[in-house]
Amino acid sequence: MALVVQKFGGSSVKNAARVLEAARKAIRAKHDGHQVMVVVSAQGSTTDDLIAKAHEISTTPSAREMDMLLATGEQISIALTALAIQELGEKAISLTGPQIGIVTDSTHRKARIKKIDTSRLVEALTTGHIVVLAGFQGTDELDDITTLGRGGSDTTAVAVAAALKQAGYDVQCEIFTDVDGVYTTDPRIVADARKMDAISYDEMLEMASMGAGVMHSRSIEFAKKFDVPLMVRNAQSDALGTWIVPEADWMTEIPVCGAALAYDESRLILDGVPDRPGVSHKIFSALASANIAVDMIAQSVGSGGKATIGFTVINSDREKTIKTLSPIVTELGATLREMGKVSKVSIVGAGMRTVSGVAEKMFRALSAEKINLKMITTGDIKISVLIEEDEVAEDTKDPGGEPIKKAHLESRKAVRGRQALRAIHSAFGLSQPRKGAGKAVGDFLKRPAPLVSTAPSDRASAVAKLEGMEDILVSGVHLNSDQSRITISDLPDRPGNCAALFTAIAEAGILVDMIVQNMTGPGKAELSFTVPRESLPRALKLAQDMAKTIDPQCAAVGDAEIAVLYVLGVGMRSHTGVAKTMFGALADRGINIAMINTSEVCLGVVIDKARGEEAAACLKDAFEIG
Ligand code: ADP
Ligand code: ASP
Ligand code: MG
Predict the structure, then answer these.
(1) In CA terms, which of 100, 111, 320, 538 is 20 to 30 Å from 255?
(2) What are the CA-CA distances from residue 84 to residues 66, 94, 131, 577 (Å)?
(3) The predicted structure's pLDDT at residue 394
(4) CB of 619 closer than 6 A to ligand 1?
(5) Which ligand has the shortest distance to the CA of 404?
């Protein structure tokens, strides 16, 4: 007997018929001999409707009252689902997040789970009930209701599964939704997107964080941290969906497994930032303290002692970001400007760590579509580009700038973004089956026998382990002193430059690691990338030749005296404290940061080579890594 946690999303409980269908699935699992927990979202578009209702009354509703309001959606669903199960002849009990003791911090609208008390759940399961739990909600230490952020019911489901696993249960978690599983990209946008059999935790984490709305990214953090097996599957069929599992060798046989589009970000640019230690820390720690997760950060190398820093934040954080930065901008003598509507397109794949030419292929596909890249950042297993939406593609804002979950892409007209996504999907042949897929899934499923234990003493110690369960997990600091950097400045801002450059580099068999491109002034971009030090002379020659053919003004310079420092873990980008600690520790030592890359599994910075060892040691200290 295992414990099966089944999560049903909004569309899967949108009306009575669907609620009954979900109830039948839960009952079937029970009849198969399992203990069953069901986590449900609000019905259909209830959460969107509640947000709209609030905006009829206030343009700036307070976050506390919004949580009070939004949590009601899930409360309706749990009662209806429990009624449906009872109607079909099984014992069921519905419980809210506060009732079972899901304790969060007090960041209303995007609270993080601190701990989960499993005692009430265990009691209800032991007495043979199917437990129906409200997703998306908890209470803070003041007993105020909080919510976990849009799409947060996935996180409730996986977090509860993780907590019960710690309490000794053999847990499996199924995420029932309106698609057959995780696709290579959003099947609503790319018709030949393919359902994957399996994807690694890290790949899914990056995909989710880069816009693949099928899973809430924080739920994958829990799954990875607590080793919870997850399957995403269709609520309206019995077909197997997609396993989200630890990385297996076969997953690296292809460089790219999926692509994602995000169209709810704003891009801000800080010009004239003094290029000295501690400045990035000042900027990003202020944002981190305001709980704003910064996405793409591109810091230009800078000339005349001044640098340009561009970054993106989610639209709903835009105003708060501008407000937070305003005193700092004044103090630094910098200026803050905004770019128009943008879309972000990303590719993800564990195999790209070791394969050359991935960026080149992406840029070439975009160049063929005449899509101009406004910003580029890379991570260990992902590359993201920001593209400008055409004027006609300008979006009308959702009320109050709230991200609306089911907002229809067609009507939101992320025209260039969708075009880019299709081009990339086809360039990487993502509709073709993934090599070796399925091999490792079978082994993975041979899991140990159930370990059900509900002894009170075990429970107490398990609960203790769950303290701070969503705290950041930094697993390592890695220094790479074998890289060099090439910077091309004054690149004219038009499509095709990156494609031409990286085609030449890839044809020479040179592996490019980090790439950062930023707009430095009207019509001008700056591009920096790192290559192995032994490849520097060849890469620099290619870059210089290419720069000249692009524009006589444009020059490429090489710098062999750099080191790349990575902090590895899970949820590195969305846990705002990581960047703060990293930049803070480096600033305290007076170590200047020349390039920054962010992703969910790794934060990377380029620093002076001479300070590499010292910087790695101080970060190990800061993150308490032995
Ligand atoms: P739920 O309400 O069940 O949580 P969501 O709307 O949050 O459902 O997630 C399912 C939707 O995610 C799908 O309808 C699909 O359009 C979208 N989606 C985006 N990217 C992907 C992807 N890579 N694979 C599958 N679905 C995706
Ligand atoms: N009902 C919440 C939302 O719409 C949570 C969820 O569906 O996961 O965002
Ligand atoms: Mg969802």
Answers:
(1) 538
(2) 29, 11, 12, 43
(3) 43
(4) no
(5) 2
Is residue 329 within 8 A of residue 335, CB to CB? The reply is: yes
Q: Are 533 and 560 in contact (CB under 8 A)?
A: yes
Nearest in space to 535 (alpha carbons), one of 555, 554, 558 = 558
The b/e string for 505-517 (b: 16+ C-beta within 10 A; e otherwise) is bbeeebbbbbbbb
Prediction pTM value: 0.90
Its CATH architecture, for the domain 346-427, is 2-Layer Sandwich (3.30)
Residue 422 has, within 13 A of its CA and on its CB side, a CA count of 12
Q: What is the CATH number that goes with domain 265-340+474-622?
A: 3.30.2130.10
Q: What is the distance between the alpha carbons of residues 296 and 19, in angstroms, rounded to a whole number?
A: 40
Q: Average the pLDDT over 501-517 and give the result.
A: 89
- From the alpha carbon of 148, which atom of ligand 2 is closest? 5
Q: Where are any strands of DSSP class E within 148-213?
A: 171-177, 198-200
CA atoms within 13 A on the CB side of 391: 0
- Residue 343 CA to residue 389 CA, distance in Å, equals 7
Pocket of ligand 2 (CB under 6 A): 9-10, 41-42, 47, 73, 135-136, 150-153, 405
Determine the distance separating the centroid of ligand 2 and the alpha carbon of 444, expressed in angstroms.
30
Is residue 162 within 8 A of residue 219, CB to CB? The reply is no
pLDDT of 301 reads 64
The answer to whether the beta carbons of residues 351 and 252 sit under 8 Å apart is yes
- Which token pair is 317? 């954080």
pLDDT at 621 over 50: yes
**pLDDT at site 436:** 60
Question: In this model, does residue 129 exceed pLDDT 80?
Answer: yes
For residue 422, the CA-to-ligand 2 centroid distance in Å is 27
Where are the domain boundaries for CATH 3.30.2130.10 in the chain?
Answer: 265-340+474-622, 346-427
Q: How many CB atoms lie within 10 A of CB 568?
A: 17
| 425 pLDDT tier (thresholds 50, 70, 90) | very high
Query: What mean pLDDT, rounded, does the chain reach?
Result: 88
